[in-house]
Specification:
The protein is mainly alpha-helical. Among the domains are: 61 residues; 30 residues. The protein contains 6 helices and no strands. The mean pLDDT is 77.
Length: 187
């Protein structure tokens, strides 16, 4: 009887590697079937619903609860898309850091892009008009970029415009008063 028991034990020990071998070989294949989702990957894509900040920056009991749910879903071999869907079902659409693709959420993406395009178009239009604008002429009171006309020696004195001064020459009374005021500063 002892001999039969030893023989059965030997056969059982010999069969264990043969039966466990395929399971051990299937383990890497099963691990490859499970998506490689990590907590930091998902934390960057969801928000803490109580703090309103990304989950990877949040430090609150609510954030810890969300992290526990994410870890449990990762252990169930869920990928990031499935985890975000479960988080949205559990906590509502505000848990997602990026808006979904419909309704008002679409406007979050379209309005800033449209405003930027309108701003660029306005700057280009104003710049083009500004460059096409003729320079102000001397007759209009502005500075001319053209060189002054050459004067010949036999030009009539009427060809030269009189000097213009924004303020006229001081009168005799003003000149005397100015001299008196400045005399106080002479050494």
């Amino acid at each position: 009887m002892l001999l039969v028991r030893r023989f059965a034990t030997s056969i059982a020990l010999a069969l264990i590697p043969l039966l466990a071998g395929p399971a051990l070989l299937a383990a890497p294949a099963m691990a490859a079937a499970c998506p490689r989702t990590s907590l930091p990957d998902v934390e960057a894509q969801v928000m803490c619903v109580s703090c309103g900040v990304p989950l990877n920056l949040a430090n609150s009991p609510q954030a810890d609860g969300e992290r526990r749910l994410i870890r449990a879903l990762i252990a169930q071999c869920r990928d990031a898309t499935q985890i975000k869907a479960a988080m949205k079902a559990e906590y509502g659409p505000n848990v997602l850091s990026l808006p979904s693709g419909g309704g008002f959420s679409r406007a979050v993406w379209i309005v800033p892009a449209a405003a930027a395009l309108i701003g660029i178009a306005a700057v280009a239009l104003v710049g083009a008009r500004w460059r096409r604008r003729p320079p102000p002429s001397a007759a209009a009171g502005g500075w001319s970029t053209a060189p002054p006309p050459p004067h010949s020696r036999d030009a009539a004195p009427t060809d030269v415009p009189p000097p213009t001064s924004p303020v006229g020459a001081p009168s005799d009374a003003e000149s005397r008063r100015l001299d008196e005021d400045l005399s106080h500063f002479d050494p």
